[in-house]
Amino acid sequence: MADETCGVAQAAAVMGDWWNLLVLREVARGHVRFDALVAELGVSRKVLTERLTHLVAHGIVAKVPYQERPPRYEYRLTPRGQSFLPVLVSMQDWADRWLLGDGSLSATAAVDSPEAVRTRALPGGTVPADLTLVDSGGAPRDPVSPDAPVTVLFTYPATGRPNPLPAGWDDIPGTIGCTLENRLFRDRWPRFAAAGAAVHGVSTQRPEEQAAFAEAEGVPFPLMSDVDLRLAAALRLPTARIGQQPRLKRAVLVVTRDRTVRHAIFPVTDIPAAVEEALTIATAAAHAL
């Protein structure tokens, strides 16, 4: 009876299997076809079929046809599946801190840390085509600009405006500098635009917070909210839970119009240098297209 009324037990019954979690991780990353999942996971076709059948039966993913003859399907996250992504990201954060790290709270990472290695391995991968965030105006927006050959995505923990930051914020490594970073991208935005590069800033702050900050600071490019952690899950971006809220760690990605990640900077230990590096890489990438 206790298990029948226990949410943890019920969630474990559906999602507790090793392969269920990894299949969901890969679908969130945009690997939605059977053969792609086999390749990414190194799982047998029999086990994958069983796990996908289980996830479809429980409404976590939906089986969507993309070819009639022979019939072929993609596996897409349902709203129920999307709502599990913060749990998945929290598991990653917990493991990065307590299993792969030394247990200390940080909004950055060592150069040789597993999360740094994971983030720097992003080039060559893609941002899922169906991924949208919410911009500071409350509208859905593609994090990759369809109007520019190159998009520079920079993620950051949080700005201290309009709402105050949690107590002890400045004592956590990697938290300081979010306003500075936005200002540096703002000041160099004409050069990014002249090079053909869009600039998008992303944090887990609410859209209305981002709107107030953008107005106060004269930010000319879109700020987007990943409050639902869809981008974090899609790219396995490093996060940290600070002030009872998941925060994106500071990183800079250069992404081309075809949604391919061309360059990743993490950890960001020198913010001005990272902005200049992003401008150099984005300019070269735009000219090469």
Task: Give an overview in words.
Residues 6-103 form the HTH hxlR-type domain. Keywords: DNA-binding, Transcription, Transcription regulation. InterPro entries: AhpC/TSA, HTH_HxlR, Thioredoxin-like_sf, WH-like_DNA-bd_sf, WH_DNA-bd_sf. It holds the Pfam family HxlR. GO terms for molecular function: antioxidant activity; DNA binding; oxidoreductase activity. Helices cover 41% and strands 18% of the residues. By secondary structure, it is of the alpha+beta class. It starts with 6 loop residues before the first helix and ends with a helix. The protein has a 7-stranded mixed beta sheet with strand order 4-3-7-6-5-10-11, covered by helices on one side. A two-stranded antiparallel sheet has the order 1-2. The chain has 2 domains: 3-82, Winged helix-like DNA-binding domain superfamily/Winged helix DNA-binding domain (Arc Repressor Mutant, subunit A, Orthogonal Bundle); 104-288, 3-Layer(aba) Sandwich (Glutaredoxin). The radius of gyration is 20 Å and the shape is globular. Helix 8 runs parallel beside helix 11 (271-288).
